[in-house]
Amino acid sequence: MATENGKKEVEMRVKLINKTNVYPSSKKLGKQETPLVTFDLPYVTFYYNQKLLLYKNSGEDGIKFEETVEKLKEGLAFILEDFFPLAGKLEKDEEGVLKVVCEEECPGVEVVEAVAEGVDVAELADAESSSFLHEIVPYHGVMNLEGLHRPLLAVQFTKLKDGLAIGCAFNHAILDGMSTWHFLSSWAEICRGSTTISVQPFHDRAKARSTRVKLDLPESPAAFEKPVTANGESKEENNHTPAEPQLREKIFRFSGSTIEKIKSKANENLADDSKPFSTFQAFGSHIWYAVTKARNLKPEDYTVFTIFADLRKRVDPPMPDSYFGNLIQAIFTVTAAGALLSNPAEYGTKAIQGVIKSHDAKAINDRNAAWESNPVLFKYKDAGMNCVAVGSSPRFPVYEVDFGFGKPERVRSGTNNKFDGMVYLYQGKDGGKSMDVEITLESEAMKNLEMDEEFTKV
């Protein structure tokens, strides 16, 4: 059976063969509590953040599934001693403030073992995303607030025809992308034979923000249909919900030389006294321009570029890269579509550079204080009108996650937290400055983007 995109659907379904929970291996942890601070709480009503790592068999024997899974689970139990919040659960304290609690009766990590021997790595690594990812990556459509009664991390190991899929679902209310890849890299380090990890996680979130904020959460995820204030009042009088657009998800791969060309083009008309544009600023503007053009917006329509920016070096005092939790904020810049498309490349790049520069420690504190005085629960797609929202980072060492049987063949996201305009940036497998750009767009806009040679071939 073929889809409307001409892609062959995977016919064989996944067979689940085992389900268990993995707990920290040490009994000496005792009760550990970690508060959710202002940097964490806005993500309570997002969905679990999903990552998929695909490993291909190498050598004559390939990956021995049962033996490998046991080794991975042993390494997971060991590493949870250091990353104990992932083994815990969400709770409210006596004042109704959310925290993560890890103790003897903690849920641990939910681990599923499965077989899909009719599926190969190439199919799952294909540029066009498939609904089959729902079968490979756990907790599809599960909201973070469900961490009150579910594990905060779920992992699925799936045996493929020619390799192994590791699908992970992390509760986004307790960690961001930097922490996610710190954990995965450390887990892999232990599985390769190390008895300690290179970088210990930093768990003192109060050092980043100590304000306590009580949230009155919806009774169930189904009750959460639009942004509401923390006391449950609707922010919108109009309760009409428009029909969801038909979306497509696709990965575009850019070589290091192409990235360099984009950066050089953005900087070629720079004034002598201007600060050069970074790779991210130039490439982000390149994506923003191309997506805006593909949408066929009116010149007067606004378009928003949103960055989920890492703040570890921007807060005062700065936090270490090993800070374990969320230390990100959404930063927005907006312009009319006509202005973005009619001006030279540096127009959008300069706007991005400016908003990044202005988001200093004072701006971060002001944003936090405003939210704390009137906490708002957001949906994951509240990123702005006609937006391009960039998450993840090509700085994350996604292709260094080697559990002892080689580096990943491909790394990608699951399907949670994706909406029209969501972009995930990953380092390219080729290394250097190459990048994989995972874009979700309305189907007609995606079709236009695919035909835009200025976007992919520069």
Automatic annotation (TrEMBL):
Keywords tagged on the record: Acyltransferase, Transferase
Entry GO MF terms: acyltransferase activity
Coiled-coil ranges (or none): none
Any one Pfam family match given in the protein's UniProt record, by short name: Transferase
Positions of the UniProt region annotated as Disordered: 224-244
UniProt xrefs under InterPro entries: CAT-like_dom_sf, Sec_Metabolite_Acyltrans
Domain of life: Eukaryota
Family: Belongs to the plant acyltransferase family.
The name this protein goes by in its record: BAHD acyltransferase
Organism: Papaver nudicaule
